[in-house]
């Protein structure tokens, strides 16, 4: 392809101007992690709480700490274990004693550096070889001690707990792959070694805390929303007939990387033409053609918190009548959803509000019976639009994982919840897939769209694509 250098210059200026505003990563927040541990200890009727960190980096990939462990410690050192004693409020960190060669190659940890553990908010840092002795000394004096550990699967940056369980189940289709996960192995090992202890799952209590974001998390998420938005805008600006999907992805990744992101929150979806109808397409290998739409699903991971944005635009910079028809419907649905979000609202309330809102609009729905939604259902039945076939009401939670932990519960939305709403319609027969997604924060009286800096009105997108 041949680049339009006037647009490339505008893109470079966009990156340069915004980098200085958002590039600094958040410093360690001692009080934040202490408060989180205190909140968990107040929730758990436990003699002890045990949380394991990841044992070691995977070969060839940057180390990312276990989400639950990081949430309560802020510590990225591999091989660490946290024990909390609710009766005393103590938090003790266990870490491996590193050989000189390990420190030389990969750096030290808190234990071997001689750093004061109080500086990180811990009462002590102890060699991990003393872990079992510590458990026995605190829970072995009487039978029936209550110890909380994680029994549910872990979540990862691009997958929730149930998604990980589904992944394990699919892996076990062949008995040659059927082996216990590390999390399950730890649970079984503890129960085998200490049959006189009552072990309980800490996951539901952890999820109750993680689903409501703290003030510190909200600020990180706001920053990430702005940075991820700039990445998507950069992707829009480099799009033209002949561009490869991987070039569009690179434009977005360059922006978030230069702003201090830890990486993408999930494998970016950059899908042109027929690829736009594959929900989790992630090969980024096709050349975008004149007349195609290009769909991007993208977000950064910053300071262990993720973002989720989807936008769809015409590769040639001008929506066709068919593309406009689908886009206008989805945009109307998405904007109505956002208007309805506030504390106490339930999914059925969102559906009812959107249906009422659309009933007052003059939308052309002809031909939409040939499209399918995320749920693989057609959006129209006997010519009548069914909103519940396009949206589920709310979306998915967003946080440390892009499909984050949490449940809505009977009380509906609560201040501090963060989730993504993503209505989409897809027609594989003609290669048009459209999705519009924003990440929103529920406030005391409504919601804040964290990703609002990305254009989504038709005229705004076309104007951005035709910057001279």
Architecture overview:
This protein has 468 residues and is α+β, with helices and mostly antiparallel strands. The chain folds into two domains: 45-201, Creatine Amidinohydrolase, Chain A, domain 1 (3-Layer(aba) Sandwich), CATH 3.40.350; 213-465, Alpha-Beta Complex (Creatine Amidinohydrolase). 36% of the residues lie in helices and 17% in strands. It has helices at residues 5-22, 30-43, 67-73, 100-106, 110-113, 131-139, 161-171, 182-193, 203-210, 215-237, 245-258, 321-340, 347-359, 458-465, and strands at 48-52, 81-85, 90-95, 124-127, 146-149, 198-201, 263-264, 269-272, 293-298, 300-302, 305-306, 309-314, 372-373, 380-381, 384-385, 396-397, 418-421, 424-427, 432-435, 438-442, 447-449. The strands form six sheets. Strands 4-3-2-1-5-6 form a six-stranded mixed β-sheet, sandwiched between helices. α1 runs antiparallel to α10 and α10 (215-237) packs antiparallel against α11 (245-258).
Give the C-alpha Rg.
Answer: 24 Å
What's the CATH architecture of the largest domain?
Alpha-Beta Complex
In round numbers, the mean pLDDT is 93
- The end-to-end distance, rounded to whole angstroms, is 18 Å
Give me the CATH fold name of the largest domain. Answer: Creatine Amidinohydrolase
The CATH homologous superfamily of the largest domain is named Creatinase/methionine aminopeptidase superfamily
Strand order of the largest sheet: 4-3-2-1-5-6
Approximately how much beta-strand content do the residues carry? 15-25%
Q: In which range does the helix fraction lie?
A: 25-40%
- Describe the sheet with the most strands: 6 strands, mixed
From the structure provided, what is the oligomeric state, counting identical versus distinct chains?
single chain
The SS-based structural class is: alpha+beta
Level-1 CATH class name of the largest domain: Alpha Beta
Q: Indicate the overall shape.
A: elongated
